[in-house]
């Protein structure tokens, strides 16, 4: 289930929020990679909008399958998440990333940083774009990427984005879809109808990676990069889209 870490707040609230819960999913551009310090956008948004809890389903390396599965799992199985008390924000990852649900015995050593558990038996296993390595999991990744071509992976991701959008709308969940990086090049592989449907799913917000000006050596935004995107892009959009639930102090 989602991480509910008790990270100390880094900022005083700047807005009044009528929703206590924030549910997020995504890849390492969402996951807060410290157990002590706030350093990613979900917790900056928590602080500034004064959410009580962050239900964090993100996982490093996650793709569309993980995001789709983890969000539905949380909404269907956590009685504290309802359409009346929760905002869902998803930072969609690369559309060629692939993941499956597998035995936690296999996934735990593979995902040493963030490991999402669906229950006490199963977790997400990301199938990375590996070119080196000799373990069985390395070989699985290489074989999968050899036989499943890029356009097929993008199409599967598009179906997941469209389906989750419909699911959240049917559940009457307040939600925002953003991109971790600009996904335009990948979306352009899609046939016109699916491309159009996919683009309509995303809110009109600049991607985290495109907006950020400061980056770590591994290519991720710095904490200041995440903070700037949260303040300048995400918060103004939320105030416009869900004005009835957020008010500036």
How would you describe what is shown here?
With 249 residues, the chain is an alpha/beta fold. It has a single domain (15-95, 153-248), classed as SGNH hydrolase (Rossmann fold), CATH 3.40.50. 40% of the residues lie in helices and 16% in strands. It contains nine helices and eight strands. The protein has helices at 41-49, 64-77, 104-110, 136-147, 150-170, 184-187, 192-201, 208-211, 223-241; strands at residues 15-17, 21-26, 53-56, 86-92, 98-103, 122-127, 174-179, 246-248. A four-stranded parallel β-sheet has the order 3-2-4-7, sandwiched between helices. It has a two-stranded antiparallel ribbon with strand order 1-8.
How do you describe this structure in short?
The chain is of the alpha/beta class and 249 residues long. The protein has nine helices and eight strands. The chain has helices at 41-49, 64-77, 104-110, 136-147, 150-170, 184-187, 192-201, 208-211, 223-241; strands spanning 15-17, 21-26, 53-56, 86-92, 98-103, 122-127, 174-179, 246-248.
